[in-house]
């Protein structure tokens, strides 16, 4: 496998994890949004990843080419109901429909995305170091 394939694979993961972080930030920012343009409360969003593969395997049978985002989907779980008849978005029974965003879940996802991002940075740095060592061997 070429050193550039390593950079390309980890680069795709960095892009995917950055989108995941952006999605988490958006979910947290809208954790109390009771009204959207589409009507109703905000719905938690989740990115969906899929492996990227090469059409032809390399000489070692490896087909991996990284990861790609195939979409961002809304979480179908119901939001929470809070009795607050004074709220402008309360229904006729006095309940307010809040988003299905759980702050604890988002924070755990954020830690996971951060760790995955850091791991891919480590892969890129290690591959770069290996390439530099190979160049040093070629000079000597």
Describe this entry's structure for a reader:
The protein is built from two helices and four strands; from the N terminus they run H-E-E-E-E-H. The model has no long low-confidence stretch (mean pLDDT 92). It has helices at residues 3-29, 103-139; strands spanning 45-53, 64-74, 81-83, 95-97. 46% of the residues lie in helices and 19% in strands. By secondary structure, it is of the alpha+beta class. The radius of gyration is 22 Å and the shape is elongated. The chain has one domain. The chain has a two-stranded antiparallel sheet with strand order 1-2. A two-stranded antiparallel ribbon has the order 3-4. Helix 1 packs antiparallel against helix 2 (103-139).
In short:
With about 140 residues, the chain is an alpha+beta fold.
């Amino acid at each position: 496998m070429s050193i550039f394939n390593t950079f390309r694979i980890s680069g795709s993961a960095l892009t995917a994890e950055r989108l995941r972080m952006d999605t988490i930030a958006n979910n947290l920012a809208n954790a109390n949004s009771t009204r959207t343009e589409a009507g109703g409360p905000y719905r938690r969003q989740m990115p969906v990843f899929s492996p990227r593969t090469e059409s032809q395997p390399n000489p070692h049978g490896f087909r991996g080419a990284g990861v790609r985002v195939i979409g961002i989907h809304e979480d179908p779980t119901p939001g929470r109901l809070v009795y607050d008849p004074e709220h402008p978005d309360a229904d006729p029974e006095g309940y307010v429909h809040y988003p299905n965003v759980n702050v604890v879940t988002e924070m755990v996802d954020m830690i996971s995305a951060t760790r995955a991002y850091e791991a891919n940075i480590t892969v890129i740095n290690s591959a770069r170091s290996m390439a530099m060592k190979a160049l040093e061997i070629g000079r000597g």
